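so my prof wants the structure for this chain in the tokens format not the other one, which i didnt know existed until like an hour ago. anyway here's the sequence
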Amino acid sequence: MGSSAASPNHPNPWPHDRDHTFVVLAAEFLRDAVIDLKRVWEARGRVSRAVCEVVDDGGPKIAFR
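here's what i got, hopefully its the right format
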């Protein structure tokens, strides 16, 4: 069986160096993901506004042949 990271008989509120490194890496990954998500939503917002402007101006001019 595996071992538990925390023992109820010997609490250790301070993270180990390995734990600290993992938390830092996870935080950096999540920060980058959130920043990228923000950029995606900003780009989608620009596209959505452009589409709304076209529709508000009477829609696209389509010619069928």
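also thought this was worth mentioning. The first helix runs from residue 17 to 56.
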